[in-house]
Amino acid sequence: MVPLLLLMAVLAADPPFVPDVATPFPEEAPLTVLVPVEPRDEFQQARLVSAALYAKSQLLQRRRQLPAALRHLQRAWRYQPQAVEHLPKIIAMAVDLQRIDEAVRYVQLAPDDAPIDSMVLRRLAMRMSSQQRWQEAQQLYQRLMPHIDQRIEPEAMELGDALLWFDWGRVCFLLEDYQQAAQHFSRIQPLIENPERISPNITLQNMLIGQADQTYWMLGDAYLGAGQYDVAQTMYRKAHEIEPDPIALDGRLARIAVKQGQDQQALELLNRCLDRAPHDLGPDDLQRLARLLDQQTEASAETALLPRLESIARSEDAPGTILQFLASWHADRQQWPELLEVLGRAALAGFVLRDLGECHQRFSDDATAIDQLLQETHRRLADDRSETIDTGVLLAAIDLAIAAQRYQVADELLDAALETDRDDVDTADRMLGWGLELLVDRQYPRAVEWLQRARELAKDEAQRLRCRYFLARALAWSGDIEQGLAEAEIVATMVPHQPRWASLPASILHYAKQYPQAEQAYLAVLQRFDDRHEPPELRDEIRDIRLSLSHVCIYLDKDDQAEEWLEQVLDEFPEDVSALNDLGYLWTERNKNLRWARSMIRKAVQADPENAAYLDSLGWVHYRLKEYDDAVRWLEKAVQASDQPDGVILDHLGDAYRKQNQLDKAIDAWHKAVRAFEQEEEASKRDQTLKKIESHKPRKQ
Is residue 225 a contact partner of residue 182, using CB atoms and an 8 Å limit? Predict the structure, then answer.
C-alpha cells in the first residue's frame, strides 16, 4: 500500500510527461488533481513532483518494470537533490540492471557519507579499471577508503583485498601518482613475491601476480617515480631474472643513475641501449642521452648522437620516438631542409604531423617555419617533377599547408603527390584525414572533393565506408542535401548495428530542416538501440540522439516532448552540460522554473565559459528574471565569444539594452540580428525583429 503522503503527492503534483512508461491499468479510476489554496513556488512544486515520481517508481518496481522505475527514481532525486537517500537506491538498481556507467555517474554525485555498499564500490572500481578509465577508478577507490581495514597484515589478507590494493596501485601508477602507487604496492609486496601465501592454487596466484616480469617492471617504475631507488633497482632485477631483457634493464638503471647523479654510468647504459635496440628508447631516454653527451668535453650530442639517429631514421622501420626527436632538434635550430627530410620520412612511416608531439603545435603557431618548409618543398618540386620526387616530403607538406589553412597550396601539392603515388603509402587514409581537417575548417566544397577522391582510392570496403560517412556530411554542409542523404542511406544500410552510423540519415534530415522526417528517423534508431547499454560509448550516441530529438521537437512546436527528451538525457547523464543548458533555456523560453533554470545554466557556463550559446542562455534567464544588468553583461560576453554571433544572441542583447533604456544600442543590436537572421535563412525571426525596430523608431511630430 502506498504511504498516504506519497499518494497525496501523486494527487497534488503536476506529473511530468514521460512517454516511455506504462499507462494506468484500464480498471484504475481517474484521479482528481487537487488545487492548492496558495500558489506554490517552483521549488515547492518540484518537491511535490519528486514525491510523485518516487511513488510511481515504487509502483513500477513492484510491477517489475525496472528500467522505468529507475528513470522515475533518478528524476525524483533530480527534482529534489536534498533527498540524498535516493542515491544509494539509484546506484544499486543501476548495477542490478548492468548499467555500470550510470551507476558510476551517480556515485560521483553522492556525498561522501552516503551509505553506498562497499562491495558495489569495489565492483565499479574494478570495472572502470578494466576499461582503462583510470580517473574514474581512482575516484571510486578513494570512496572505498573508509570501508577498508588498513591494519590487516599481508599474511592475513584475502585474495580480494590483495587484488584491490594491487589494482589501486596500478591505477595510481597509470595516473602518474607514483607516491600513492608505491604506497599501495608496498602494502602487498610480500604477497607479490610469495603469492603462495594467498593460496596454493596457481590460478588464484596468477590473479594477483599475472605476468610476473611485467608486474615487477611496473613496480620498479612506481618506486623510481616515488624516489625509492634501491627498491626500484631490486624490482627491475627481479623482472630481468624472470624474463631476461637487458635493454629494458639498462634503460631503467640509467634513469636511476641519472637520479643519483651518476652521469657517466647513465651515459654508458644509454649508449649500450642505443647500440643494441634503438627502437626501445623513449623520447625521454633520447633527451637524457643528448643532455649527458652535451655535458661531456670530448663529445656532444651533435657529433656523437645525431649521426647515429639520422642513420636509424633512414631505415624503413624507423621508430616514431627517434623521428620525433630529430624533428624537434632541427626545428629548434631552424634547419629547414633537414627538418623537411625528417617529416617526409615520418610521413612514409605512417605518421602525421599530430603524431610528432610538440612539433604540431609549434608549426601551427609559427607561420615563418611553415613558409620556409613550403618554400623548400616547392623548390624540390620545381627541380624534379619525375617519379624520384620524395612522396613523403609532399605528404608532409600537405599536412603543413592544411594546418596553416593554405588550401590552394594543399590542392597543388596533392596533385603532385598523386602523380608520385607509392604502393606502400595508404593515400586514401591520408586523404580521409585531410578531408576531416577541411570539414573542421568549414571548407565544405573542398572537403567533398578530397573525400570523393579518398573513396575512389579506398583499398577495401571498410575504408570506403568511412569515407562515405564523412562525405555524406560534407555534401550536406556544402548544400547538396539530396546526394548527402543518398550517401547517408548507404552508410546506414551497411552498418545497421551502430547507432551513430544508423542515425546518419536522420542527422542529414535534421541539418536540412526537414524536421518531421528527421523526428521519425531518430525515433526509429532510438527504438532499435535504447535497451542496449554496452559498450559504454553506445550510450553517448543514444544521448546525442535524444538531444537532437529535443531540438527537432522545438521546431515542430512540441515543447513538452522537447523537455522530456532533455529530462531523459539528464536522468542518465545528470551532469551533461549541453542538456542542462538546453533544458534551462527551454524553461526560460516558456517562462517557468526560472531560478532552477538559472542554476542549471550556470553549471553549463562554469564547465564551458567560452561557449556563446551557454552565455546567451545565462543572459536570457537573467532577462526573464528582470535582472537586466546581469542580462546585458552575459549577453555581451556571448557576442564577444562568437566569431559571427547568431541572430538570436543579438536579438536578446537588443531586448536587454531596451530594458536599460539604451535605445540606440538596442536598435543597433537588432539591425545586426536582422542581418544574421537573413544569412541563417530565418525569415520569421527576421520579421519579428524588424517589427521591434519599426516600433521603436522616433515618431515624426
Answer: yes
